[in-house]
Inverse folding.
């Protein structure tokens, strides 16, 4: 039977003895929604999630990681205003040395781009403690974002469990015209599908248009596919992939990866690249998409180019082609952050960096920076055009800023005009025919960068520390600064819970709303008691104080659709767990947040009748009855509500896989793993 590419890779990685509920037969499509367990070949972490992940890994008691490749990246908390972030970096470096990981030092680049350049392999599986790990799908991997605890288990050799996703096919035809880019492809998908349209699905790209896209362009699409709520996105591995890997000095890592002829998708989306126009995601959601033509002429105050979505050499080259010989408009501040050290060095050698500096761009660190509110914040009420992947309110670091997500071409055109500008209306030289550095066209143009030069930059390991031999690793002392605290234990499972509702939230609550990022909060990622003080503060500034009034003894949270969208940060479950949240009851969950709640023994429940959401108010008392029976048998959750509407009984959907129910019965994933659970 013909299989999609995603199905083929997943089937090659099935750990059959861990799939207790799934009948598996190779070559036959797996039932959608069935619990599958897959072997993980590679893992990555970054410093905002890594410290807690490795604290958890230490408790597993395994002397060395069991994956083919595991990498600890420093790319988030690089603003060192005091000792906390640097102490985390020293901890992470010594953990990497002791347990057999590569360590990517601060300045080496953003984890997703650096991993694509240095370690990504077609046909492999990658699990990362960052929601944009699906970037690896641009090179033909099954790359999935998850909570840090799931990654710790995978590093220890454990399988990764997930409901088998639906596979949505995206057929690309035609070719992008000048001034339109890969960012406009994914914005078009978001316009059609919404930020919750991909929950429980993989987006698989195919069609004649795929061959026209470079790997960095494909990675832009798969990276921002996370905003669909998707499990991951994937492109085939073809001749373009081969050229990319050869340019990175890793031609031997290439394998062809493609769907079978006649593969059947659960849904097909058709996009003619030739008909696409420049688009923008308007404040404050990645799916609030409009044509740039509708916004043309609107004044802007800031442009930021970079992030793991759009900071490749392809992107920088396109920007330089538009701004060369021009200057940033008065009243506009512009910054650009190359995605990796290799990209920065290549941009310098090719003359791109000089063109950007001459135009007036500030060159920012090769790190996440402004995307997570870590510097380069907009002015008050500013209009900021960013080539990033998220524009949730306040994420930029400025609460009242209006952030638009656009392509590098749109950002560059607007930076020099001072207003929203459609790059297709400008006259400029197409970079594919001038510098010749675009990785799919290395042998064309004037060869300002030779293939050998690109390979030398890409393989320079000066900022990448390889794993120590095990005999040397055993002598390493792990360094722990005073801000690094052990992960608090989960609350014990109870058969009945009676607590007040301390928060009622609306649709599309993000993990930024639950646990913010930014300069004030991120330094406490390794200190749960401190970071918990920021829990839900964007939804209710007094939540911590009201939870404290209960002595953190217990409470419930109620939400609406797509609760927990956005970042994979498990602190959005750790903080609530520490403050006593015992269950979250919503209309629907985002995938990673739901998994993180389970990992930390917070019961995720969806309303059997969505209208019951309106029957609950903050301050009402809820009782969950017969929890043990529900978790053992998979029966619905029984909920009694006492409040302004008197006493009513409602039902909660129990759609949890058996393993998830067993984790909750055990008291969370760490306890489940210690008890021998798969």
């Amino acid at each position: 039977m013909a299989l999609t590419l995603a199905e083929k890779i997943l089937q090659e990685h099935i750990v059959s003895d861990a799939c207790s509920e799934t009948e598996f037969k190779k070559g036959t499509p797996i039932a959608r929604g069935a619990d599958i367990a897959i072997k993980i070949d590679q893992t990555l972490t970054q410093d905002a999630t890594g410290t807690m992940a490795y604290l958890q890994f230490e408790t597993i008691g395994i002397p060395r990681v069991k994956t083919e490749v595991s990498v600890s990246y420093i790319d988030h908390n690089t603003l060192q205003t005091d000792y906390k972030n640097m102490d985390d970096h020293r901890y992470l470096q010594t953990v990497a040395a002791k347990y057999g990981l590569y360590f990517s030092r601060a300045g080496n680049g953003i984890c997703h781009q650096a991993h694509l350049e240095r370690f990504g392999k077609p046909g492999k599986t990658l699990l990362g403690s960052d929601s944009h790990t699906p970037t690896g799908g641009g090179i033909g991997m099954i790359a999935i974002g998850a909570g840090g605890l799931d990654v710790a288990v995978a590093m220890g050799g454990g399988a990764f469990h997930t409901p088998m996703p639906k596979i949505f096919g995206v057929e690309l035809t035609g070719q992008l015209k000048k001034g339109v880019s890969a960012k406009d492809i994914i914005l078009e998908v978001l316009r059609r599908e919404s930020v919750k349209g991909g929950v429980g699905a993989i987006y698989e790209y195919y069609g004649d248009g795929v061959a026209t896209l470079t790997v960095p362009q494909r990675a832009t699409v798969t990276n921002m596919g996370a905003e669909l709520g998707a499990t991951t996105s994937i492109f085939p591995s073809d001749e373009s992939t081969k050229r990319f890997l050869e340019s990175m000095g890793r031609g031997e890592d290439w394998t062809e990866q493609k769907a079978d002829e006649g593969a059947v998708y659960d849904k097909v989306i058709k996009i003619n690249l030739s008909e696409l126009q420049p688009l923008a995601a308007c404040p404050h959601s990645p799916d609030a998409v409009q044509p740039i033509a509708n916004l043309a002429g609107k004044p802007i105050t800031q442009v930021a180019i970079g992030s793991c979505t759009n900071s490749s050499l392809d992107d920088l080259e396109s920007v330089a082609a538009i701004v060369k010989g021009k200057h940033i408009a008065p009243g506009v501040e512009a910054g650009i952050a190359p995605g990796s050290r290799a990209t920065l060095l290549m941009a310098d050698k090719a003359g791109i960096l000089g063109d950007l500096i001459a135009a007036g761009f500030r060159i920012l660190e090769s790190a996440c920076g402004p995307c997570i509110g870590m510097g380069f914040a907009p002015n008050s009420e500013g209009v900021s055009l960013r080539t990033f992947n998220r524009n949730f309110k306040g994420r930029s670091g400025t609460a009242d800023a209006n952030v638009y997500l656009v392509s590098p071409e749109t950002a560059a055109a607007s930076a020099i005009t001072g207003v929203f500008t459609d790059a297709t209306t400008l006259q400029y030289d197409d970079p594919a025919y001038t510098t010749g550095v675009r990785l799919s066209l290395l042998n064309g143009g004037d060869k300002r960068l030779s293939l050998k030069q690109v390979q030398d930059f890409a393989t320079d390991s000066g900022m990448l520390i390889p794993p120590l031999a095990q005999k040397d690793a055993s002598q390493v002392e792990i360094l722990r600064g005073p801000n690094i605290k052990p992960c608090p234990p989960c609350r014990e499972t109870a058969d009945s819970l009676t607590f007040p509702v301390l928060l009622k939230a609306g649709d599309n609550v993000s993990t930024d709303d639950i646990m913010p990022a930014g300069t004030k909060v991120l330094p406490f990622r390794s200190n749960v008691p401190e970071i918990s003080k920021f829990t839900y503060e964007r939804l209710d500034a007094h939540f911590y104080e009201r939870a404290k009034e209960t002595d953190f003894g217990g409470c419930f949270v109620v939400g609406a659709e797509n609760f927990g969208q956005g970042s994979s940060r498990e602190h959005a479950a750790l903080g609530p767990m520490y403050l006593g949240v015992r269950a979250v009851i919503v209309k629907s969950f985002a995938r990673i947040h739901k998994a993180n709640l389970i990992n930390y023994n917070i019961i995720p429940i969806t309303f059997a009748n969505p209208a019951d959401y309106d029957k609950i108010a903050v301050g009402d008392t809820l009782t969950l009855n017969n929890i043990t029976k529900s978790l053992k048998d998979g029966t619905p959750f029984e909920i009694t509500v006492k409040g302004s509407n008197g006493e009513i009984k409602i039902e909660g959907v129990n759609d949890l896989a058996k393993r998830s129910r067993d984790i909750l019965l055990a008291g969370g994933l760490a306890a489940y793993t210690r008890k021998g659970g798969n």
Observations:
- Residues 496 and 531 are 29 Å apart (CA to CA).
- The first helix runs from residue 5 to 12.
- The first strand starts at residue 35 and ends at 38.
